[in-house]
Specification:
single chain, 450 residues, alpha/beta, Aspartate Aminotransferase, domain 1, Aspartate Aminotransferase, domain 2, 2 domains, 4-stranded mixed sheet, 15 helices, globular, binds pyridoxal-5'-phosphate
């Protein structure tokens, strides 16, 4: 017999949780979740929570989705895993074709990996090796922007611009070029979101002008830097970036791990800027949030061709993960695409409008500095004072306090610093979205207006 206390005891004794100061568990032990259904999670005591953050941005279509569960069961009972070097299977081949056809403008090839960070590593190595094999071996540096988040393995972390994850490991990281990027809430150019012309692109242009001969590729999170406090920016920046990369002869590598698969209102965020990056990384929602999985989409056959030749030329892309192309994950991804394109995306505009109303109802609160929205991602930036957009001292942990207040009210809203956000399953019922907004309002007021 195990009960709530036994599980928490075992957890306390043996588990080291991710991205957590474990001492915080003295005050707030982890919540034991026993089941999920749609946009709701249920704890061991039977209390329900609205999953306001899609279980770390992965759940796309709701928990325990009947169709996803069914195909997973079928696939597990038929073929749960097989080596993907020298072997293939229907879900893997079909999914690759489907992704290539769906990506903006059409793509040539798909390389599978098993998590977002691994997809970023694949893109890094593929871009690097491409230049090594096409007569431009000097092109080996990568460019990213401040505030970027591309995962936490060392290669991916080298591209990251968030001190929290990066600073301690700085001596281990690749020599990348990090340039200032969009920062629209506190725009250094005093521009307004709707009408800016991405004046903030200038430092990127300067970096490419100065270093193109040494640069392999530029990594970017299209439209929203999610981990950087849901920093949303203009598609104009992406248009300028795509043009500049093409002109400079460097790869444009889009990290759509968080924003891809419908989050921004379209299947891919890049679509909204009318760009087709050379490489496009997907993960998180790719399996509907059921399993870790990732894919790197390659736009041009020319990229692939640079690796194609006689075995003895040693030009192949020697990169592998044991679970590459896992059939259950591929099958889930195919079903996810079916549900997304036939049901979830067509139903999304109504939810996007509802989210807009929820955000509008929060915009007037005394300590809300800004509300912002990109498709079905909404964010609320809390400030100590609206005048001058003065931030709270980090040691007050205002966002953390709002998180705890919301949890008591039955919602999971896990802020990034003092930025609260809504990133729910795309299929959340409108009543739950409204309830989530009400919980956010009450929790923000409880913490900031007492
Ligand atoms: C989550 C995330 C990653 C890393 O994915 P993992 O599966 O957590 O390794 C990379 N880039 C972006 C934009 C992400 O949001």
């Amino acid at each position: 017999m195990t009960g709530v206390d036994d599980i928490l005891q075992l957890d306390r004794a043996y588990v080291w949780h991710p991205c957590t100061q474990m001492k915080d568990h003295e005050q707030q032990p982890p919540l034991e979740i026993v089941r999920g259904c749609g946009a709701l999670l249920f704890d061991a005591a039977g209390r329900r929570y609205i999953d306001g953050i899609s279980s770390w941005w992965v759940n796309l279509l709701g928990h325990a989705h009947p169709r996803l569960t069914r195909v997973l069961q079928e696939q597990a009972a038929t073929l749960e895993q097989v080596i993907f070097a020298g072997f293939t299977h229907a879900p893997g081949a079909r999914l690759a074709a489907r992704l290539c056809a769906a990506a903006p403008g059409g793509y040539a090839k798909v390389f599978y990996a098993d998590c977002g960070s691994a997809a970023v590593e694949v893109a890094l190595k593929m871009s690097f090796q491409f230049w090594q094999q096409t007569g431009q071996p000097r092109k080996r540096r990568f460019v990213s922007v401040r505030g970027a988040y591309h995962g936490e393995t060392l290669g991916a972390l080298s591209l990251g611009g968030l001190a929290l994850y990066r600073e301690k490991f700085a001596p281990l990281l690749l020599d990348t070029l990090m340039v200032p990027g969009p920062d629209c809430f506190r725009c250094p150019f005093q521009k307004a979101r709707a009408t800016c012309a991405a004046e903030c692109f200038a430092p990127m242009q300067a970096a490419l002008d100065a270093h193109a001969a040494d640069v392999a590729g530029v990594f970017i999170e299209p439209l929203v830097q999610c981990a950087n406090g849901m920093n949303m920016y203009s598609p104009v920046y992406l248009q300028k970036l795509a043009a500049a990369c093409a002109a400079a002869g460097v790869h444009l590598i889009a990290d759509e791990i968080a924003v891809g698969f419908g989050r921004t209102g379209t299947l891919f965020a890049s679509e909204q800027a009318g760009i087709a990056p050379d490489l496009l990384c997907l993960s998180k929602g790719l399996t509907g949030g059921y399993m870790p999985f990732a894919a790197v989409l390659v736009r041009d056959a020319q990229m692939f061709d640079a690796f194609y030749g006689e075995y003895s030329e040693m030009k192949a892309f020697y990169h592998s993960h044991s679970y590459t192309g896992n059939p259950m994950a591929c099958r889930l991804a195919l079903e996810t695409m079916d549900i997304l394109t036939a049901e979830a995306l067509p139903a999304l505009p109504v939810r996007i409008a509802a989210l807009q109303r929820v955000l509008a109802s929060l915009a007037g609160l005394a300590h809300v500095g800004e509300t912002r929205q990109c498709g079905f991602i909404g964010a609320i930036e809390l400030v100590a004072a609206r005048a001058g957009k003065r931030a709270y001292p980090p040691e007050q942990r205002i966002g953390w306090q709002v998180y705890r207040a919301a949890l008591r009210r039955g919602a999971i809203l896990r802020p990034l610093g003092d930025v609260l956000y809504f990133l729910t399953p795309l299929t959340i019922p409108l009543e739950l979205l409204e309830e989530l907004g009400a919980i956010a309002r009450d929790s923000i007021r409880e913490v900031t207006e007492r």
